[in-house]
Known about the structure:
single chain; alpha+beta; Isoleucyl-tRNA Synthetase, Domain 1; CATH 2.40.50.140; six-stranded parallel sheet; 22 helices; disordered N terminus; binds 5'-O-[(L-methionyl)-sulphamoyl]adenosine
Amino acid sequence: MRNCVNPGPLPFGAADKKEKTMEKKKFYITTPIYYPSDKLHIGHTYCTVATDAMARYKRLAGYDVMFLTGTDEHGQKIEQKANEAGVSPKEFVDRIVEGPQGVKDLWKLMNISNDRFIRTTDDYHVAAVQRIFKKMYDNGDIYKGAYKGKYCTPCESFWTESQLVDGCCPDCGRPVVDAEEEAYFFRLSKYADRIRDLLENTDFLQPRSRVNEMVKNFIDPGLEDLCVSRTSFTWGVPVDFDPGHVVYVWVDALFNYATAMGYLNDAYGDYDHYWPADYHFVGKEIVRFHSIIWPAMLMSVGEPLPKHVFGHGWLLLDGGKMSKSKGNVVDPYILAEKFGVDALRFFLMRTFPFGSDGNFSNELLIQTINTDLANDLGNLVSRTTAMVGKYFGGQLPEGCRTWDAPENFDTDLIAMVSALRDTYETQMEACAPHNALAEVFKVIQRANKYIDETAPWALAKDMEANGKRLAHVLYNLLEATRVCGILLIPFMPESMEKLFRQIGAGAEAQTWDSAKVWGTLPETTAVVKGENLFPRIDMDKALEELEAAAEAAKKAALPAIELEPQLTEKVDFDTFCKSDFRAVKVKACENVKKSEKLLRFTLDDGTGTDRQILSGIAKWYKPEDLVGKTLVAIVNLPPRKMMGHESNGMLISAVHTEKGEEKLNLIMVDDCIPAGAKLC
Ligand code: MSP
């Protein structure tokens, strides 16, 4: 029997230093490596938290776990973004990976226990990818050709005509462009039969529904060779034997799972131990890369295939995928700060079936916290510990573990708790964390019902007669709480530490093995009613605050200055010259009655007759501040009536947007310019 002590939260990247325990069974799990093109959102967090929960569960169950995550830093999209930001691509990615609220910072906040972090710009990875590319070239699986096709720049994917949806990229729905370049190709077609066999006849790809998608959409129509080098940009791993080409970003990215263990490099020496990976957890839109291209490339270099790829669903917002470009992303920092990291982790895993899409909403998040954590779990812990405190001064008497004449509800509770670890394990092994949590919460609800059935407050009325029975009831409740607490460690590691302290469960009562041994908790352990683990949230107030926080974050993220795009349509010179721009002096200026926007100007335009112009600039100027100024007006526009006043011309201003707010500045010229001077 394994006997593993709960490792608790591991410090970020800790296991790089961890000793290998060869006698344990290994388990190697990965997340996708993230594009550091923008700040990560709750959808990315979902995938990483799921992988973390699985890794923690396996550690708890006694496995020697390797959990890898990282960043995928090459490619045209990054190069473009860096250009826009006016920095080098490396500076750009460094900021998003290492900087404040960057990728590493977010994983630290979310208590992600990854053992290793790879960046595809790491030297060892770059050199290994060059060796891998050469290896596939030398064995005849990579050859030179010319690529003509439809290219989606944001996704960095080439598509065939038949794969496009309404002429657009099938992944992101954006327009594709015709592209042609000299390129290297990978003989993906050669592996079609082996890939079909892998997908159809093994449990390599999960859930099963993803197999049909892959076979129907990609294998049945015929696998085409894959373009694996680019010449149209430079931010990538150079093909060392053909300068000018960089390795296609997906080839570079997929091999991270192997190079981070030391494949074809000396930076790490764990490849023989951990490879093949046991699980790649990936979002559904990148299943194609992981279940077709990745195994084919491994076949090409003669390496074993990962055991499983699991394609999870998306977190949707208002029915659509979250994306920065759509502006509908949910910020994990705001949620974690408001509700706590553990509550957020729990919500993500409890609410959405892992293989399917799920609709995110703040209401659902608050509801889940209130129902499961505050009501069910929180109440069980606080009622139980409070009663041990109130009736027994925080320590149950010896002998409370046993009871000679158990009631049906005693037996029922003990049977449910004793069976829980196995049902939980079955669900976790099936990558169904939502179901594993549902099993735990059935037991928590059962335990709360047990409180009502046994009515400890009634027993306490006659301690002499019922004291022993009362102690037994409370012991049963502590045990039920303890076992549920163990199984919740992978999801809420920090809160479970607090829970164990409150119910007096030491290290030996927090182990995986002990979750199956009813009665592990010492009878006279010290129980303390501590802080409320999960306070109830006021829904209306929290929703309002979240909205305000999201609004503030949106504003802060806006570019400091936004300019109107310049018009591309040309005006011929003669038409332009027909516009008569003149210097005008403000003789008088006043607000127009009943209008919040309009100012009425009386202007000297050099003709000797006053000119009246109305302008919607009251938001930016006080009338008295403008008297005496020399402005610019276009004077040959047809007259216009505004709020009952005639306006003869238009004053010229400069406009831009700053942090989401429209700004306007009247063009003012030097006062030495006489009224009526023509501007040309
Ligand atoms: N760089 C590639 C992965 C290379 S792996 C060799 C990539 N990066 S990504 O940053 O765009 O996405 C990383 C992961 O986040 C993907 O698995 C993706 O499915 C996941 N998610 C991004 N948005 C998501 C949701 N809204 N919901 C759930 N997961 C989503 O793809």
